[in-house]
């Protein structure tokens, strides 16, 4: 009598064939597991093995255990929006070969480390926006993301962005960079040039991107800067300039030696001449 409901439950679990059942506090439907807004401080330990969409959004998760995604090869969408994450464990995406959308917005990342997404080769969309302390993106941060189409880096604390980080993204279509305190000095020039050259393919939230420094261009839209704005950056001397300066210096020093010599001779002559005329007078 007591046994039969248990048997039914066991049979149901076996039929589902999905290993772990839906985690407590989460809602599961089809392949989607929704654990958003449940005040979670840590990730649910086990998920159905066929999980395709996982939302852990709007919680207080501060870390993800290493290997957390190792069993979920079907995972396509991972939503970690609005948590307290500052880093991801190495190799998190090793088994998540199908992962296409990753949302890390509204977290606590201060930098994007090298090779952070290296194994997430199928990633199409990556959202790192609204990480208010995000200051640094490693030049190799996005290595491996050959298919990435949409990258959102808006509303962080970025003053600069290494061109190398973006050049490794051949499939990039949209790039959001607004709401960052961009420093529009000389180092901005190559970045801006790259953005302009990609503007057809790469739609950007250009109006929102503003310069925070240097003072002369504070508040100016990034895209209002022209080649003229960077003219001072090109006031460097070429080899020809150095040779010319060296030559002029050489000529001037020879000339001054010669002038001194002539002056010396003249003075000497005058002295003798005046002495001679004094002698004559006496
Ligand atoms: C999974 O997420 C994608 C993208 O967010 C969404 O379009 C799709 O409807 C979701 N699937 C389920 C079953 O919730
Ligand atoms: C973040 O989650 C909290 C609940 O944990 C919610 O009150 C808040 O509105 C969310 N913020 C955003 C920007 O979604
Ligand atoms: C964000 O990280 C800093 C340290 O880097 C920490 O002091 C702070 O409490 C974190 N904030 C949240 C909301 O987790």
Automatic annotation (TrEMBL):
Span of domain LRRNT: 21-53
Keyword set, alphabetical order: Cell membrane, Disulfide bond, Ion channel, Ion transport, Leucine-rich repeat, Membrane, Repeat, Signal, Transmembrane, Transmembrane helix, Transport
Transmembrane segments: 242-265
Organism domain of life: Eukaryota
Annotated compartments: Cell membrane
InterPro entries: Cys-rich_flank_reg_C, KCNMA1_auxiliary, Leu-rich_rpt, Leu-rich_rpt_typical-subtyp, LRR_dom_sf, LRRNT
Residues spanning the signal sequence: 1-21
Cited PROSITE patterns: LRR
Record-annotated LRRCT domain positions: 180-234
Membrane topology field: Single-pass membrane protein
Main location, first listed in the record: membrane
A Pfam family assignment: LRRNT
Quaternary data: Interacts with KCNMA1.
Protein's UniProt name: Leucine-rich repeat-containing protein 55
């Amino acid at each position: 009598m007591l046994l039969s409901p248990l048997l039914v439950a066991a049979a149901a679990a076996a039929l589902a064939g999905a290993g772990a059942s839906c985690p407590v506090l989460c809602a599961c439907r089809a392949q989607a597991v929704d654990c958003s807004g449940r005040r979670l401080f840590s990730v649910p330990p086990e998920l159905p093995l066929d999980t395709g969409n996982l939302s852990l959004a709007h919680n207080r998760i501060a870390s993800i255990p290493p290997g957390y995604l190792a069993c979920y090869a079907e995972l396509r969408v991972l939503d970690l929006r609005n948590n307290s994450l500052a880093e991801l464990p190495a190799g998190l995406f090793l088994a998540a070969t199908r992962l296409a959308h990753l949302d890390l917005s509204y977290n606590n990342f201060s930098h994007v480390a090298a090779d952070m997404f290296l194994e997430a080769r199928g990633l199409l969309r990556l959202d790192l926006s609204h990480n208010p302390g995000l200051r640094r993106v490693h030049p190799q941060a996005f290595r491996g993301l050959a298919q990435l189409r949409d990258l959102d880096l808006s509303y962080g604390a970025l003053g600069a962005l290494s061109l190398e980080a973006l050049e490794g993204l051949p499939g990039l279509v949209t790039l959001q960079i607004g709401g960052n305190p961009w420093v529009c000095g000389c180092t901005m020039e190559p970045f801006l040039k790259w953005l302009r050259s990609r503007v057809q393919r790469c739609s950007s939230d250009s109006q929102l991107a503003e310069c925070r420094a240097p003072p002369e261009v504070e508040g100016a839209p990034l895209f209002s800067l022209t080649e003229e704005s960077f003219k001072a950056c090109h006031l460097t001397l070429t080899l020809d300039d150095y040779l010319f300066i060296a030559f002029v210096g050489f000529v001037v020093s020879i000339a001054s030696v010669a002038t001194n010599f002539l002056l010396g001779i003249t003075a000497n002559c005058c002295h003798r001449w005046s002495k001679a005329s004094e002698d004559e007078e006496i």
